[in-house]
């Protein structure tokens, strides 16, 4: 498929008001109606070699980001099941994007929202969440085994105990967090017609499972490529300190569709920063950690696949919340993130247990890891009420 030429669909001198209205941006009576129908953008030369490229699904065009799709969906489903009584509090652990979606859901359905985060949340996002009326709690010390994520989940349990009517979406294990992404898959089918490869980041596993499974039903030979961060447990690596947010985990989310992935790539923070900054310079459309990591992998797949392969890559959000991290020179220098142009090809391991990876690495064996006793499946019993 060729990229669309730069063109204006209507001649504004001769178009009627009705035509202009039909061609203009959507109008909505409520912000939740602005979720979805995000555009796809062709990412080609010079980010990719001549004659190669991929389609980026720009989820940053949602009011908050990709989680605007799942937060209101999970809330509506919980209300329907009467797990969330009218006006009751929503309590969740989030590194940011789901928080924005839950703020939207809270305003849409009339629920107060409490979010638990950690010091890694950008001050701008915490400030924005407060502006949206959210009660933001920040944990100050990581759990000795489950890291920041488990520390956040334990605070969620405390808040749930304090508010007997409250409900936690439990995005890591809630199947509605997968079902919410069916429209994303349908949009891709409508926009691209045929898809040979899907490149998706994995955090809770929600958008990869929800989009990939539906697309596989349309295209049975679809290749699904998961993108994770180094030091994430999801695909069987040991937990470690992670700078990258959004993708990756220090627990084992039940929503990850292990049987669906053909391969996984782990990406390190300097490599994601290189890709996000190179995308910004060459293609304008960019994002943060997960967009950088996904773009790096999609670029490699485009280079190493036949030219006629049609590749879709999901960009979960836009660049704005990363101005103080990925796009801040002082931050990047302090974390030694600059000047690391990734290699042409990833390292390759045959099995996730073969090595602890610290830079871009690919593995074509994808299986559900067995949580280590005492570590890992630190799911919050009873949280998803
Ligand atoms: C920016 C960003 N990218 C990627 C992900 C991973 O998406 P998922 O949780 O659907 O696996 C998240 C999840 O929070 C995110 O916020």
TrEMBL record:
Domain Tryptophan synthase beta chain-like PALP: 34-317
Keywords: Pyridoxal phosphate
Cofactors named for this entry: pyridoxal 5'-phosphate
CDD domains per record: CBS_like
Gene3D superfamilies: 3.40.50.1100
Keyword Nucleotide-binding: no
Coiled coil feature spans: none
Region feature (Disordered): 366-385
UniProt KW Thylakoid keyword: no
InterPro entries for this protein: Cys_Synth/Cystath_Beta-Synth (IPR050214), TrpB-like_PALP (IPR001926), TrpB-like_PALP_sf (IPR036052)
PANTHER family: CYSTATHIONINE BETA-SYNTHASE
Protein name: PLP-dependent cysteine synthase family protein
């Amino acid at each position: 498929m060729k990229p669309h030429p730069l063109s204006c669909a209507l001649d504004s001198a001769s178009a009627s008001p009705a035509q202009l209205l039909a061609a203009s941006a959507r109008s909505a009576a409520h912000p939740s109606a602005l979720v979805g129908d995000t555009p796809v953008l062709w990412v080609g030369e010079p980010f990719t070699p001549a004659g190669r490229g991929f389609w980026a699904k720009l989820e940053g065009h949602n009011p908050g980001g990709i989680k605007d799709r799942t937060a209101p969906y999970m809330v509506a489903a919980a209300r329907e099941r009467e797990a969330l009584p009218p006006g009751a509090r929503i309590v969740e652990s989030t590194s940011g994007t789901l928080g924005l979606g839950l703020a939207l859901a809270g305003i849409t359905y009339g629920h107060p929202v409490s979010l638990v985060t950690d010091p890694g949340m950008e001050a701008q996002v915490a400030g924005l969440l407060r502006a949206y009326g959210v009660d933001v709690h920040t944990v100050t010390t990581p759990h000795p085994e489950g890291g920041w994520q488990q520390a956040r989940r334990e605070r969620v349990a405390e808040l749930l105990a304090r508010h007997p009517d409250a409900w936690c979406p439990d995005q890591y294990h809630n199947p509605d967090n997968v079902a919410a992404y069916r429209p994303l898959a349908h949009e891709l089918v409508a926009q691209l017609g045929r898809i040979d490869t899907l490149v998706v980041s994995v955090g809770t596993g929600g958008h990869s499972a929800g989009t990939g499974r539906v697309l596989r039903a349309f295209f049975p030979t679809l290749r699904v490529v998961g993108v994770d961060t180094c030091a994430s447990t999801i695909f069987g690596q040991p937990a470690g300190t992670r700078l990258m947010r959004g993708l990756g985990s220090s627990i084992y989310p039940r929503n990850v569709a292990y049987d669906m992935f053909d391969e996984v790539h782990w990406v390190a923070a300097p490599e994601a920063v290189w890709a996000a900054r190179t995308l910004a310079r060459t293609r304008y459309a960019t994002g943060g950690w997960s967009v950088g990591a996904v773009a790096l992998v999609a670029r490699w797949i485009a280079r190493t696949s036949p030219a006629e392969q049609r590749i879709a890559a999901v960009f979960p959000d836009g660049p704005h919340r990363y101005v103080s991290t990925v796009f801040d020179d002082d931050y990047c220098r302090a974390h030694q993130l600059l000047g690391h142009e990734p290699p042409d090809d990833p390292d390759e391991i045959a099995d996730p247990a073969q090595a602890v990876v610290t830079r871009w690495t690919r593995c074509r064996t994808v299986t559900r890891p067995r949580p280590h006793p005492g570590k890992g499946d630190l799911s919050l019993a009873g949280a998803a009420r």
